[in-house]
């Protein structure tokens, strides 16, 4: 069973990963590129989240999930396709505009239907199972124990600083039922455990930050298994630099730092 870990090439060649990649069908990280991109850390984030929740029996009829900062990611549609009832959330349009998320036109969903652009879920089922509302991840509403699972995909590093992102991960656990699960992906600074980007539009978490967050979660009774081992294949060692190649795109040069994706799997105590 998957544990909290770092994006590695070896994950891309497992039967589970390949099956989920097929389920994503023609979903393109880069529009109209053939063949569709596979060895990309964003693809890893989505498929890791899918598999982590699937093997914990979260993706089936009767289960409920809440997603934060979902944008146009395919997870909402695939969760619904599996039968789970989903509440998708993101910033309201005014805040999204102020933060620049509307500028690209490819990330923020202005309507709920944009979460099923590729028809990954039957539209009637999608409309029946998916709801949408605005939530500021820095100011979560008071809801408790409503959902079997929660998730976010590379969202909590965009909350202004390192501490705000970690606070979000801890605070959003209140949405999850006792015994439920939460999966979140974020940026991991693999070049330094000391210097990093600690505030701004995108922050980079160091191993020490992740360990501190995990320790905080465990103090609250949460279960988190953590493996921060890095991959060693040529694709793992390749560092993509601007303007960036479509693939392999597992480690990225951002300014003076090298970053990759990592995922946290958290179980709430009973």
The beta-strand count equals: 12
Uncertain stretches? none
Shape: globular
Domain unit count = 1
Biggest sheet record: 10 strands, mixed
CATH architecture grouping? 3-Layer(aba) Sandwich
Strand content: 15-25%
Rg for CA atoms? 17 Å
The helix-strand sequence is EHHEHEHHEEEHEEHEHEEE
Mean pLDDT score: 94
CATH topology value: Rossmann fold
What class do helices, strands and sheet pairing give? alpha/beta
CATH class call: Alpha Beta
Helicity level, as a percent range?
25-40%
What is the CATH homology-level superfamily?
Vaccinia Virus protein VP39
- SS element count, helices: 8
Distance between the termini: 20 Å
Textual characterization of the structure:
There is one protein chain. A hairpin with a 2-residue loop joins strand 11 and strand 12 (257-267). Helix 1 packs across helix 2 and helix 6 (162-171) packs parallel to helix 7 (207-219). It is built from 8 helices and 12 strands. 26% of the residues lie in helices and 23% in strands. It has a single domain (4-267), classed as 3-Layer(aba) Sandwich (Rossmann fold). The radius of gyration is 17 Å and the shape is globular. The strands form 2 sheets. Strands 1, 2, 3, 4, 5, 7, 9, 10, 11 and 12 form a 10-stranded mixed β-sheet that branches. A two-stranded antiparallel ribbon has the order 6-8. The chain is α/β, with parallel strands linked by helices.
């Amino acid at each position: 069973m998957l544990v909290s870990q770092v994006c590695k090439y070896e994950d891309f060649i497992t039967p589970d990963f390949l099956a989920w990649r097929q389920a994503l069908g023609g979903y393109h990280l880069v529009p109209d590129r053939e063949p569709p991109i596979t060895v990309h850390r964003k693809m890893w984030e989505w498929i890791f989240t899918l598999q982590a929740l699937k093997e914990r029996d979260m993706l089936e009829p009767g289960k409920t999930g809440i997603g934060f900062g979902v944008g146009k990611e395919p997870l909402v549609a695939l969760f619904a396709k599996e039968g789970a009832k989903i509440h998708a959330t993101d910033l309201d349009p005014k805040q999204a505009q102020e933060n620049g998320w509307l500028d690209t036109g490819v990330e923020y969903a202005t309507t709920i239907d944009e979460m099923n652009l590729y028809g990954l879920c039957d539209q009637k089922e999608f409309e029946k199972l998916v709801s949408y509302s605005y939530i500021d991840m820095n100011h979560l509403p008071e809801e408790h124990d409503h959902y079997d699972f929660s998730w976010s995909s590379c969202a909590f590093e965009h909350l202004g600083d390192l501490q705000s992102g970690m606070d979000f991960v801890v605070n959003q656990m209140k949405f999850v039922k006792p015994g439920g699960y939460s999966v979140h992906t974020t940026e991991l600074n693999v070049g330094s455990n000391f210097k990093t980007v600690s505030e701004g539009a995108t922050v980079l978490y160091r191993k020490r930050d992740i360990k501190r967050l995990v320790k905080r979660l465990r103090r609250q009774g949460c279960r988190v298994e953590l493996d921060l081992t890095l991959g060693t294949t040529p694709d793992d060692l390749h560092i993509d630099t601007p303007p960036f190649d479509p693939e392999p795109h597992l480690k990225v040069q951002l300014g003076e730092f090298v970053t990759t994706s990592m995922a946290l799997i958290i179980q709430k105590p009973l």
